[in-house]
Amino acid sequence: MEFKHRSVLLEETIEGLQIRKDGIYVDGTLGGGGHTLEICKRLGEKGSIVGIDQDQAAVRAASIRLKDFGEKVTIVWSNYCDMKFVLQQLQIDKVDGIILDLGVSSYQLDTAERGFSYREDAPLDMRMDTRQEKTARDIVNGYSETELFRVIRDYGEEKFARNIAKNIVERREKAPICTTGELTDIIRSSIPMKFQKKGGHPAKRTFQAIRIELNKELEVLRESLDDMIELLNPGGRLCIITFHSLEDRIVKNAFRKNEDPCICPPDFPVCVCGRTSRGKVITRKPILPSSEEMEENSRSKSAKLRIFQKGFAEGA
């Protein structure tokens, strides 16, 4: 299948990045190359961009899509958590902007054999990086009932997490759960019918939870944000698009902490902890898709864009 992915909040992200013609940029979630393509169009002869993605299919597709930009674009098969190392290998010390477009891509959802979708029956996989050995099948068949409950409750924010976990364990005692269809049937049987009629597909939250757990999405995000801000030149911007509340909360809190890291008691007349601001939050409230975009692309409905700008001087 051709790698297709509609870049959400594209114009807003490009505008928020404040692209300089001679700047160096990083797209940490390259995908089909939509954001990178628009950045390339705005770069001059000395400008460049590094595109990183852990999905080999994305790397292949973006390489074809962006081939006309030649050496202006460098594409790397890696995870954005290794951005610092990737840039060191390319002898890049600092950059002028970084983009992350988090979550699962349209291509991953629409390619049944990847096992991300609850709408088609396929092997339970959900790996964003196929070099990884562990799959969703290992989680569904290997985690204890308590562990499954925690994952589904915390990462899926699923009201019926306990019932789903219990039914998964009961079913797998008879035979391993191997496909997305089998898992979807278990989830459906675990949720009262009156609750299935609202709030979207009943398996949506559980599939999201297992995907996040498998790919360590929240840990990777949480552990990478400070490094990415450190990689920015003064005035450089970090633009992050999230698709659910857990991601958004991590980004919001990290941006606030980098803007105001002081840990002194509020009644202290002056700061004595020595922690200085690394920049400022540009988006006090997240930027949301327009009604037109949400109508055209239903997957954009939960998207939120937050932007942080590195300070121009110590404490700025």
Task: Kindly describe this structure.
The chain is an alpha/beta fold and 316 residues long. It has helices spanning 10-17, 34-41, 56-65, 83-89, 106-110, 136-142, 145-156, 161-172, 180-190, 193-196, 204-215, 217-231, 245-259, 291-296, and strands spanning 24-27, 48-53, 73-77, 95-101, 232-242, 279-281, 304-310. Strand 1 (24-27), helix 2 (34-41) and strand 2 (48-53) form a beta-alpha-beta unit. The protein folds into two domains: 10-107 and 217-310, Rossmann fold, CATH 3.40.50.150; 115-215, Orthogonal Bundle (DNA polymerase, domain 1). It has 14 helices and seven strands. A seven-stranded mixed sheet has the order 3-2-1-4-5-7-6, with helices on both faces. The radius of gyration is 21 Å and the shape is globular. Helix content is 42%, strand content 14%.
Mind sketching the topology for me?
Blueprint: H1 10-17, E1 24-27, H2 34-41, E2 48-53, H3 56-65, E3 73-77, H4 83-89, E4 95-101, H5 106-110, H6 136-142, H7 145-156, H8 161-172, H9 180-190, H10 193-196, H11 204-215, H12 217-231, E5 232-242, H13 245-259, E6 279-281, H14 291-296, E7 304-310
Parallel strand pairs: 1-2, 1-4, 2-3, 4-5
Antiparallel strand pairs: 5-7, 6-7
Helix pairs in contact: 7-8, 7-11, 8-9, 12-13
EC number: 2.1.1.199
Family: Belongs to the methyltransferase superfamily. RsmH family.
GO biological process, one term: rRNA base methylation
